[in-house]
Amino acid sequence: MLRIKRVYEPATPGDGARVLVDRLWPRGLNKEEAHLDDWLRDLAPSDELRKWFGHDPRRFAEFQKRYEHELEDDAARTLLDDLARRATRGTLTLVFAAKDAEHNNAVVLAREIERRVRRIAAAASRRKASAPKAKATTSARPPARSPAGARAGRRASTGGRRARTPA
Fold first, then answer.
1. Which of 24, 59, 78, 102 is the most buried (most CB within 10 A)?
2. 3-state secondary structure the chain
3. pLDDT tens for residues 77-87?
4. What is the distance between the terminal CA atoms of the chain, rounded to a whole angstrom?
5. Would residue 73 be called left, alpha or beta, if left means φ above 0 and alpha means ψ between -120 and 50 degrees?
6. What is the pTM of this model?
7. Is the pLDDT at 165 greater than 80, yes or no?
């Protein structure tokens, strides 16, 4: 499960792993108060893009396009794939400092991670569908022997001689 949350909101057990996705440390907050499991500043927008955006909601659509372009870097892809795997195993909360909860880099990252989570789920589904299926048995009893097999079994138990039955 993937969530996003402001770093200034209190941490809760439901947050799971908390990952700060800003390049700069949040103002007025120490490490203990942040309750973070990780800080991925390399996944945050470049300083140039961050300054250009300036948290102006009118620039968000263009910011998103430019940021997604930055996320095509190999290092960013690796980090995004890792976050997607973490989100499939448990709750992952992307933590950000911006005041605007709808127009920030964590929103863009969450969309990218959700795409990867869907790809992981689809791949797992394909693997499961293509895996060979074991034959189900309906009974715990061994299969019945044919009459010829039954005679061979009797011969083996009598040393190869035919068992005599009293007349």
1. 59
2. CEEEEECCCCCCHHHCEEEECCCCCCCCCCHHHHCCCEECHHHCCCHHHHHHHCCCHHHHHHHHHHHHHHCCCHHHHHHHHHHHHHHHHCCEEEEECCCCCCCCHHHHHHHHHHHHHHHHHHHHHHHHHHCCCCCCCCCCCCCCCCHHHHHHHHHHHCCCCCCCCCC
3. 999 999 999 99
4. 79
5. beta
6. 0.73
7. no
